[in-house]
Automatic annotation (TrEMBL):
Domain of life: Bacteria
InterPro entries per the UniProt record, alphabetical: Redoxin (IPR013740), Thioredoxin-like_sf (IPR036249), Thioredoxin_domain (IPR013766)
Residues annotated as domain Thioredoxin: 10-226
Name of the protein in its database record: Peroxiredoxin
PROSITE patterns, alphabetized: THIOREDOXIN_2
GO molecular function (one): oxidoreductase activity
Length: 226
């Protein structure tokens, strides 16, 4: 049965759905409702760990975990990587106090309204379809990591080599089904209502592969802090 048409990411004022996932950095399950009624939470929904941009986005989010915790706000990182592969990655690349969950079926991404972009030969209808030419014409500029602006594929190759990332069969399966998955971060209040978000969807993908400005996120966090 085909999935319903995605209308777009959840917006401030929307109630976040409950999603139950396998925890990566601890045993058992983790759910959005674990936080509802208890404390606010920042939910980061990312592509698999095979994505070098997402590895950096996850690190950037984890660097704010302590400051958020001081305000009584939790953090939950969700990746599209299968559980065993994800646990292996974080064993060798630990991030302090990271609470992470595995979602290889991208259930949470769909629930929060993040599209999985379809790549095709010529047609673009952002954020649902994008042409190969549009992808190749995109330039990624990451001063300090890339030697200069690069197209997407060249940047991915460069960063993977820089990281020494070795692809597994699980990674290849995730790329085959979710290479175009858009990502985002959603700040929920203690009732599970979205109060702030940052996604790759707006303005034709202007924020692709980027991270939210820390001061913007922390300002939103201060407004809902316990």
């Amino acid at each position: 049965m085909p999935e319903p048409q995605i209308k777009g990411p959840l917006q401030p004022g929307d109630r976040a759905p409950n999603v139950v996932l396998d925890a990566i950095t601890r045993q058992g399950k983790v759910a959005i409702d674990d936080f509802r009624g208890r404390k606010p939470v920042l939910v980061g929904l990312f592509r698999g760990l095979h994505c070098p941009f997402c590895r950096r986005q996850i690190t950037a989010m984890s660097q704010l975990e302590g400051a958020l915790r001081e305000k009584g706000i939790g953090s939950l990182t969700v990746v599209n990587t299968p559980i065993d592969r994800a646990r292996l990655y974080f064993r060798y690349h630990p991030l302090p106090n990271l609470l992470a969950a595995s979602d290889p079926e991208r259930v949470s991404h769909r629930a929060f309204g993040l599209p999985n972009v379809e790549f095709n030969a010529a047609e673009s209808d952002w954020p649902y379809k994008v042409s190969a030419d549009a992808v190749m014409n995109m330039r990624i500029d990451m001063p300090g990591e890339l030697p200069g602006p690069m197209n997407t594929m060249a940047a991915v190759e460069f960063l993977d080599k820089l990281d020494g990332y070795e692809f597994s069969e699980a990674d290849r399966q995730m790329i085959a089904t979710g290479e175009g998955q858009l990502v985002g971060e959603f700040l929920l209040d203690r009732d599970g209502i979205v109060r702030w978000s940052f996604t790759e969807v707006p303005e034709g993908g202007r924020y692709m592969f980027g991270v939210p400005a820390p001061q913007e996120l922390m300002s939103a966090a201060s407004q809902i802090a316990a």
